[in-house]
Specification:
This protein is α+β, with helices and mostly antiparallel strands and 208 residues long. It has two domains: 90 residues, Glutaredoxin, CATH 3.40.30; 106 residues, Glutathione S-transferase Yfyf (Class Pi), Chain A, domain 2 (Up-down Bundle). It is 53% helix and 9% strand. It contains nine helices and four strands. Strand 3 and strand 4 form a beta hairpin. The longest helix is centred in the middle third of the chain and has 26 residues. The structure holds glutathione (GSH). The site of glutathione (GSH) has 11 residues, from helix 3.
């Protein structure tokens, strides 16, 4: 039974295409053109009430009935639970996955996303204020990640959904004006992730 992925070619959309590829789950893509406000159409809002991609519909939910899921972190947890992959069973091993997934959802996404926003502004004074504030926080987050990846091969021990979540945003490092050479452990991990054929497929799949 094929999962439908509602997405657009953005970091949050890529997190899910990478996870689906890594988990070997069949899926089809339903592009939601957020530039054309398709995220406000009633049919999409009925599965994603916050009018944001990504969302999925799994025709074979936990009880065999269809289920929809919105919010990329919730989708990753759902898929991890469903497949038993990239989400450890033991609570001790699961805790770092949850920590780093929440770290991504709360900071390493919202902050570089603000850099993308302010970098696109035309007014120089508006740009300066926003870029200074959110670039500093984005770099701090890369520093935290670099420190962590100096101690562990993947973000939370073994390869997990936390890596997929973080990679979606690290993929846009140039757009948020970060040079990965400044964060050698992040660079090592980034190259290792992109050397995985399923990750590459998740970034190659057409989402728009
Ligand atoms: N917390 C959400 C954020 C999703 C999000 O920001 N999606 C953006 C694209 S990356 C979007 O759909 N924007 C359309 C809008 O805000 O109207 C998640 O992780 O799923």
């Amino acid at each position: 039974m094929t999962i439908t992925l509602y997405a657009w070619a953005t970091p949050n959309g890529r997190k899910i295409s990478v996870a689906l590829e890594e988990m070997g789950l069949p899926y089809t893509v339903k592009p939601i053109n957020i530039g054309n406000n398709e995220q406000f159409q009633a049919e999409f809002l009925s599965i994603s009430p916050n009018n944001k991609i990504p969302a999925i519909v799994d025709p074979q939910g936990p009880d065999g009935q269809p289920i929809s899921v919105f919010e990329s972190g919730a989708i990753l947890l759902y898929l991890g639970e469903k497949t038993g992959k990239f989400l450890p069973k033991s609570l001790r091993d699961r805790v770092p996955v949850l920590e780093w997934l929440m770290w991504q959802m709360g900071g390493f996404g919202p902050m570089p996303g603000q850099v993308h926003h302010f970098a696109a502004l035309e007014s120089e004074s508006d740009r300066q204020y926003g870029l200074k504030r959110f670039s500093a926080e984005t770099r701090r987050l890369y520093g935290v990640l670099d420190e962590r990846l100096g101690k562990t091969e993947y973000v939370a021990g073994d390869l997990s959904i936390a890596d997929f979540a973080i990679l979606g945003w690290a993929w846009r490092h140039e757009r948020h004006k970060v040079d990965l050479a400044d964060y050698p452990n992040v660079q090592r991990w980034y190259q290792m992730m992109f050397a995985r054929p399923a990750v590459q497929r998740g970034f190659d799949v057409k989402l728009d």
